[in-house]
Amino acid sequence: MLRRLILPAIVALCAANPALAVVAGNAESQKLLAEGNVLHGQGKFKEALEKFGEARKASPEASAPLSAGANLLMVIAAGIPDDAARSARQQQAADVARAALKLDSGDIVALEVLRLLADPSSISAYQPNAAAGKAYAEGEALFHAAKYEEARAKYREAQRADPKFASAWVMEGDTYFMEKNWLAAEMLFQKATVIDPQSAQAWRFLADTLARLGNRNGVESAALNAIAAQPGQQMSWDRLAMVAQLDKQPLARLQFARRASVKFDPATGKAAISLAEEFKDAKGDAAPERAIWLAYALGQANAQTAAAKAGRTLSPYALEREGWTVAMKMLAEVEAKGQPLPQSPVLLAIRKLYAAGDLDAAILLLMYREAYRPEFEAWKTAHPDGIRQFVAAHRLMP
């Protein structure tokens, strides 16, 4: 899922912002991370985990060894047929990712692991034909061994076998990127975006290349297209955040996490509401926040129940929107009565977005799930420049 993401993603970010270098740790840690990443690419998962563990010992303050391990545990979990065992390994991956975020709340790999675990319906990658897949896999092995010219030959073989396989162009471009041949890399990444405009990876890699070429507007445009392809991927937002930093108009990270959920029993139609553990017996400062999240869940439960009685089914997006509409109306009532407001930065931010009439954009961009894809595509059609305008108005990212 996060193929060859770990070290290259960190290196790219650190190159743009040296202050982030602590993510990967010291030179020894980075070396071990690179070795583990190669082993991961070769399918040697046990050996890769051992390398990530050694990197952790070399730099206990660095988050990357943990997030690399979390990513690998998630990949391993995907291949486990037994539901219980797969769930246990996924929980382990989530726990390790959260441990990484305690060291660095902006660790992009850890954030992406948690996103993918929370949203298993994420859009599937294009499946090439057998010949293209075989050539591509051979190219990957060569890439990991830094044999870029040989890897290129394999990626081109994959392109000929399946011209719709955009990743083959992305990876040929990446071989040139690694050799700092920016113009060749740009050309191939552009080609990949034409073949598959929904490839967020192709747009991100294009943004990284245009950054090396000093094309600020090109970086921004590519980052916006990456977000438009898949708004849930933190790495795409990070590219846009780099541009914002250059403009001295930084983006704030919302770090949204749902603290309440609703499950519907298909047999009885009854709703079961779950609140975050932190709200159990909530008192004092936590009580107002608990009340808003409870209103959010009740809004969804009541909307679904009413729809079922009318013989209708609400989309996941419609349920999310109804939950926030009810929660924000309650928050307005609490404020009107002069009662204590929740101090959660997330809830206060959503309150501002709701007041500005941007609830739809906030859900689609800051709380995205792949189940919202139909509404997201419709929103993009109705608001061709909507992502840029939303960011300019609110300076927020997931």
Quick overview of this protein structure:
The chain is 67% helix and 4% strand.
Protein architecture, described:
This protein has helices at residues 6-16, 27-41, 45-58, 64-78, 83-103, 108-118, 130-144, 148-161, 166-178, 182-195, 200-212, 216-229, 234-246, 286-309, 316-336, 345-355, 359-366, 373-382, 386-394, and strands at 252-253, 260-264, 271-275, 396-397. The protein is mainly α and 398 residues long. β2 (260-264) and β3 form a beta hairpin. The radius of gyration is 22 Å and the shape is globular.
What keywords describe this structure?
398 residues; mainly alpha; two-stranded parallel sheet; two-stranded antiparallel ribbon; globular; disordered N terminus
End-to-end Cα distance = 20 Å
Q: Major sheet, described briefly?
A: 2 strands, parallel
Helix content: 55-70%
Q: Can you write the helix and strand succession as a string?
A: HHHHHHHHHHHHHEEEHHHHHHE
Number of strands: 4
Shape: globular
Class inferred from helices and paired strands: mainly alpha
Count of alpha/pi helices: 19
Could you name the ranges where pLDDT drops below 50 across 5 or more consecutive residues? 1-22
Q: Give the strand order of the largest sheet, numbering strands 1, 2, ... along the chain.
A: 1-4
Beta percentage is under 5%
Overall mean pLDDT stands at 88
Gyration radius (Cα, Å) is 22 Å
Helix-strand layout with pairing:
Layout: H1 6-16, H2 27-41, H3 45-58, H4 64-78, H5 83-103, H6 108-118, H7 130-144, H8 148-161, H9 166-178, H10 182-195, H11 200-212, H12 216-229, H13 234-246, E1 252-253, E2 260-264, E3 271-275, H14 286-309, H15 316-336, H16 345-355, H17 359-366, H18 373-382, H19 386-394, E4 396-397
Parallel strand pairs: 1-4
Antiparallel strand pairs: 2-3
